[in-house]
Specification:
The protein is mainly alpha-helical and 84 residues long. It has a domain of 56 residues. It contains 4 helices and 2 strands, in the order ββαααα. The protein is globular.
Length: 84
């Protein structure tokens, strides 16, 4: 089964089994950047399949994913200076 964006059922199963992926975010953003190449309908289909296969919702934060797609850094970093 193909979910889109180059992500197959076999790849998801590998990521869960070998890379310990536990959520859709793990699969689309942590272990790969395949989420950049998938449409929202494809991600929804993946979420449905993931829930049926693994008994988990595979929750992900859609707004955070949209920020990632746009290349925006969602992390807040503290600035510091290197004074002697």
């Amino acid at each position: 089964m193909e979910f889109g964006g180059g992500l197959s059922q076999a790849k998801v199963e590998y990521l869960v089994r070998q890379e310990w992926a536990q959520t859709i975010d793990d699969i689309l953003w942590q272990r790969s950047k395949l989420g950049l190449h998938m449409q929202s309908g494809q991600i929804a289909r993946l979420k449905d399949w993931f829930a049926a296969r693994y008994g988990a919702s595979g929750n992900n934060d859609a707004s955070q994913n949209e920020e990632r797609k746009l290349g925006r850094d969602t992390c807040h970093r503290e600035s510091f200076s290197l004074e002697n």
